[in-house]
Design goal:
Blueprint lengths: L15 E10 L2 E9 L4 E5 L3 E16 L2 E11 L3 E7 L3 H10 L9 E7 L5 E7 L5 E2 L9 H11 L18 H13 L3 H10 L10 H15 L7 H17 L4 H19 L1
Parallel strand pairs: 1-6
Antiparallel strand pairs: 1-2, 2-3, 4-5, 4-7, 5-6, 7-8, 8-9
Length: about 270
């Protein structure tokens, strides 16, 4: 495929992500949408079909509500580069994989169609863009999805070594991982972390100075301890002694925080 290069002003060459969902917003029904992360805004896409060349199929882990979720990224080259992202266990992903598993020649464009199912589900229909004929395979909920993905990746030019769901992890900065692990240990709401970061004009901890990251860790810990101590000063002083000072002497931070939490819980239980 050859693409004419248009000169002049343009948007950055970033992929356009389409997320699959059967929903309604402002009275408008839609089956997939864009998400503007800067404005935290869902933007429905009225068109139900995307025409282009399937260029890549990959598995990606994304965090949702504090847990890692496996996503199927369907990369399509068209007027722009599109990435259709959906859960790997969704009906959309499975119906897409069943249909695309029949294709041997990916040099021809395809039409990917989002179709509404029952109970807010979304299925995928696949068409040959030239003939407009549907590419269809009988539904099989027990199909060997790992092998199907492996075979498609191989035909697209990839070289997966074994027919397993090989996750492509997103690079994680040590400070982002630090906050994630501590937040998980404390069972601290992810939304509150995002809100705190927004006040700092960043979207992830690794963009902050280490002093600010330490401040975030302390605020999460003291929020957890708010109902564990009769006196707020006790929580802060014990945090300084058992966590900050201990880490300064070489202790593992997560271990120190966990020990501090257990000590406060034991003290509270003994006072009851």
């Amino acid at each position: 495929m050859t693409t004419e290069i248009k000169l002049g002003l343009c948007n950055p060459p970033e992929p356009i992500y389409l997320y699959v969902k059967n929903a309604e917003l402002g009275g408008e029904s839609y089956l997939w949408y864009h998400y503007d992360i800067d404005r935290d805004k869902t933007i429905p896409v009225s068109q139900r079909a995307l025409t282009g060349y399937l260029s890549e199929l990959r598995l990606t882990t994304k965090e949702f509500k504090g847990k890692d979720n496996l996503k199927l990224d369907i990369v399509v080259s068209a007027d722009e580069l599109y990435v259709v992202r959906t859960g790997v266990e969704t009906n959309f992903a499975k119906s897409f994989l069943l249909a695309v598993s029949l294709i041997q020649d990916f040099s021809k464009p395809l039409i990917i169609v989002a179709n509404a199912g029952d109970e807010n589900t979304v299925f995928c229909n696949l068409y040959d863009a030239a003939s407009k004929s549907r590419i269809e395979r009988e539904w099989n909920k027990n199909a060997d999805w790992a092998t199907i993905i492996h075979d498609i990746q191989f035909r697209l030019g990839g070289t997966p070594s074994t027919p397993k769901l090989t996750v492509v992890p997103q690079p994680v900065h040590p400070q982002d991982l630090r906050i994630k692990n501590i937040r998980t240990l404390l069972d601290y709401p992810l939304d509150l972390v995002k809100e705190w970061l927004q006040f700092q004009d960043v979207d992830r901890p690794s963009l902050l100075h280490i002093s600010k990251i330490n401040e975030l860790v302390k605020s999460m810990c003291l929020a957890w301890a708010a109902d564990k101590c009769n006196y707020p000063n006790h929580a802060e002083s014990s945090y300084q002694n058992q966590v900050v000072d201990a880490v300064g002497l070489g202790a593992d931070e997560l271990t120190a925080i966990n020990a501090w939490m257990q000590q406060l819980q034991a003290t509270k239980a003994g006072a009851m």
